[in-house]
Amino acid sequence: MTGIHTLMTGLGLILSWSRAYCGWVCGALVPACLLITLQVLVFTALEWPQWQRRTVAGVSLVWVGLLEVHVWSWFWVGVVRIPTFVLIGLGLLCVLWVGWAMAFPGPLQHLGQRAKRGQMSRSRSRPSMGGSHDSEAGGVAV
After folding, report:
1. Contact predicate 22/82, CB 8 Å
2. Where would I find the H helices in the chain?
3. Domain assignment present for 132
4. 40 near 112, Cβ under 8 Å?
5. To the nearest whole number, what is the mean pLDDT of the chain?
6. Residue 71: exposed, middle, or buried by beta-carbon count in 10 A (0-12, 13-18, 19+)?
7. 131 domain-assigned
8. Going by C-beta distance under 8 Å and a sequence separation of 6 or more, which residues neighbour residue 32?
9. CA 134, 140, 141, 142 torsion: positive or negative?
10. Who's near 54: CB < 8 A, 6+ residues apart?
11. Distances in Å between the alpha carbon of 111 and those of 1, 6, 18, 63, 131?
12. What is the pLDDT of residues 35-93, one digit of tens each?
């Protein structure tokens, strides 16, 4: 019985600290969740190996989980405001994006292939530095 009491006291202290420094916690967790979710999407589009995408997705879920625990601690003490619902929605959106990228990587990979083809075709259409001069640029090759 003492072990559970000690665990709950420690958890209560951590959540109390989280609420006391809410601006800092949210100021770190919100950008971290968005950036690592974006990283999962980019890694999927660039067709990185499955184990690397799964690792980044797992880290993403840890960051989102921390954000959600922080927000739910506010509900636990009875604070119900618009930012709590917005942050819960943001966390849910990040989880859905990561889940979609892991379950259905095809559309993102297709988008990545199209972007690569577009980049290669643009690089082929540019003149080289010693190529023809553009009259609009005042005689300077662009």
Report:
1. no
2. 2-20, 22-45, 50-76, 82-103, 106-125
3. no
4. no
5. 84
6. buried
7. no
8. 63
9. negative
10. 102
11. 55, 51, 39, 26, 32
12. 999 999 999 999 999 999 999 999 999 999 999 999 988 888 888 899 999 999 999 99
CA distance 74 to 79: 5
Q: Hey, what are 104's tokens?
A: 């259905």
Model confidence band, residue 28 (pLDDT cutoffs 50, 70, 90): very high
Q: Which domain holds residue 44?
A: 2-125
- Residue 124, φ and ψ in degrees, nearest 5: -75, -30
CB hemisphere CA count around 129 (13 angstroms): 0
Q: Based on the structure, what is the number of domains in the chain? A: 1
Which residue carries 């601006």 as its tokens? 23
